[in-house]
Design a protein that fits this description.
This protein has 245 residues and is an alpha/beta fold. It has helices at 43-51, 77-83, 100-107, 122-128, 130-134, 145-157, 175-191, 203-207, 227-231, 234-241; strands at residues 3-14, 17-28, 32-36, 55-63, 70-71, 85-88, 163-167, 195-199, 212-217, 220-226. It is built from 10 helices and 10 strands. A hairpin with a 2-residue loop joins strand 9 (212-217) and strand 10 (220-226).
């Protein structure tokens, strides 16, 4: 399986403050990486750095396979989106003054050449999230938190990315909405084969739908391996994350 994302010796942060220190991670085509760690360990900073929203102090980021690989760390955020990054930040960042349908059509891009699965269109997003289809004329301000999260994910999908970045997509949502989102993410990654990096505070739920896992602590990688191996070692998971079984 070909390597899609390669991050090497990455140091980054905000202004002069360095949060990430010599971070190296990679992900293959069609695979999902669970990015775990306690609060404040650098998970969001890593996602934001991949998307181009922080100051990078060192290291490299490359996206793509073989000769098609693009050096991301030299590019601004909007060019990274064109290169294949689909980003769903914690803040969601939907256009609240636009309707659901306008949010989707405003950012939609055609599918990239060589894509094996069907391209993501607003209609496919509606099929994935029937709630959005029912509210397609509603403004962003008229949506619940869960519906806004669905819309944020839909907006990333209609970019037809090669790599999806999800920063705590289930945070603060009702359990029934969390389950709906997890089912959608499983379909996108496991059935559609879209590569993804997922930050989430529900480690077991995300490990169950991921191929690999990385744990951050104080801005460095302290664990890297298969998701299944970490899932089957609850004592190690407790130690790394400080969570009760």
């Amino acid at each position: 399986m070909a390597e899609l994302l390669q991050v090497r010796d990455l140091s980054a942060g905000y202004g002069e403050a360095v949060v990430l220190h010599d971070v190296s991670v990679s992900i293959d085509e069609g695979q999902t990486l669970a990015l775990l760690g306690r609060n404040g360990t650098g998970k969001t900073t890593l996602i934001n750095t991949l998307a181009g929203a922080t100051r990078q102090h060192g290291g490299s980021i490359a996206l793509g396979v073989g000769a098609a690989a693009v050096t991301l760390h030299k590019l601004p955020s909007h060019v990274r989106a064109s290169a294949g990054i689909g980003w769903v930040p914690q803040e969601r960042n939907i256009f609240k003054s636009l309707s659901v349908h306008e949010n989707l059509t405003a950012v939609a891009r055609p599918a990239r050449k060589g894509r094996s699965s069907s391209p993501w269109t607003p209609e496919r997003v509606y099929e994935l999230f029937p709630r959005l289809a029912e509210r397609r004329s509603n403004l962003g301000t008229q949506l619940s938190g869960g519906e806004q999260q669905m819309l944020a994910l839909g907006r990333a999908l209609v970019l037809n990315p090669t790599l999806l970045l999800l920063d705590e997509p289930c945070e603060g949502l009702a359990p029934i909405i969390v389950q709906e989102l997890l089912r959608a993410i499983r379909r996108i990654t496991r059935e559609e084969g879209l590569s993804a990096i997922i930050v989430e505070q529900h480690p077991q739920a995300i490990l169950a739908i991921s191929d690999t896992a990385a744990v951050l602590d104080r801005g460095t990688v302290v664990y890297s391996g298969t998701a299944r191996s970490l899932q089957e070692q609850p004592e190690l998971l407790d130690k790394l994350l400080g969570v009760a079984r």
